Amino acid sequence: MQSIKDAKRIVVKVGSSTLAYPTGMMNIRCVERLVKVLADIKNSGREVVLVTSGAIGVGFGKLGLKERPCDTPSKQAAAAVGQCELMYTYDRLFAGYNHTVAQVLLTRDIIDVEKRRENVENTFARLLDMGCLPIINENDTVAVEEIEFGDNDTLSALVASLCGAQALVILSDIDGLYTANPRTDSNARLIEQVSEINDELRALAGGAGSSIGTGGMITKLHAAEICFENDISMAIINGSKPESLYDLIEGKPVGTLFMR
């Protein structure tokens, strides 16, 4: 596996807890910092693909709802509103650094059907050849259980495979994978490198993530398994410090690196 330092094409996944406050309103400062870093990395000659969560979270905030909806029609309605807001924000901010973005919305049936998968691969290849920065999300507005990915950690690993990336970086709400829950155990220790996903690690991963997201550490381990299968290096770092991406691509120790 190539190290992330050597990766020419990098997929970065950002979660709802990084993009938005618990109110559902967008965390403008964090989004602006993330866009600036990604634009700068792209300026350096690397190709960048962004997998973004946040459509439902941002949507329920814009709709004035007090909490994330639970029923499918309400979640799909919130996603329709939130996706507009997300892409408007990304387009405006990346344009300030002279980068063109492209929206790609996926559902699992597109990945599972060979011809559709090939079309997605060709689209990614052409967008990157044209110098675009693809921004991918699950198509939450139409996705139902039969065709949904369920979490964007898994989606980001599949996207990394589809676009031929050498590295995936998942921006989380903690610094990486720990030996215990760092929010409840003061003795929890950051695991700096993982070369194999085993039952012990799965047991450490725990349950769900934040109140506005759908993921947790267990979905990130699943993403790592997909990356291992496709010879892709992966890292988990803290999304509240997007500047850490610079350290990562310079080969400095940051977060948890998944690499054989």
From TrEMBL:
Organismal lineage: Bacteria, Bacillati, Bacillota, Clostridia, Eubacteriales
Pathway: Amino-acid biosynthesis; L-proline biosynthesis; L-glutamate 5-semialdehyde from L-glutamate: step 1/2
Recorded superkingdom: Bacteria
EC number: 2.7.2.11
Protein name, entry field: Glutamate 5-kinase
Designated gene of the protein: proB
InterPro entries, alphabetized: AceGlu_kinase-like_sf, Asp/Glu/Uridylate_kinase, G5K_ProB, Glu/AcGlu_kinase, Glu_5kinase, Glu_5kinase/COase_Synthase, Glutamate_5-kinase_CS
Family: Belongs to the glutamate 5-kinase family.
Keyword terms: Amino-acid biosynthesis, ATP-binding, Cytoplasm, Kinase, Nucleotide-binding, Proline biosynthesis, Transferase
Function (record text): Catalyzes the transfer of a phosphate group to glutamate to form L-glutamate 5-phosphate.
Keyword Zinc among record annotations: no
Species name: Acetanaerobacterium elongatum
Spans through the membrane: none
Top-tier EC class: transferase
PANTHER family named among the record's database cross-references: GLUTAMATE 5-KINASE, ISOPENTENYL PHOSPHATE KINASE
Gene Ontology annotations for the cellular component aspect, listed alphabetically: cytosol
GO MF term list: ATP binding; glutamate 5-kinase activity
Catalytic activity: L-glutamate + ATP = L-glutamyl 5-phosphate + ADP
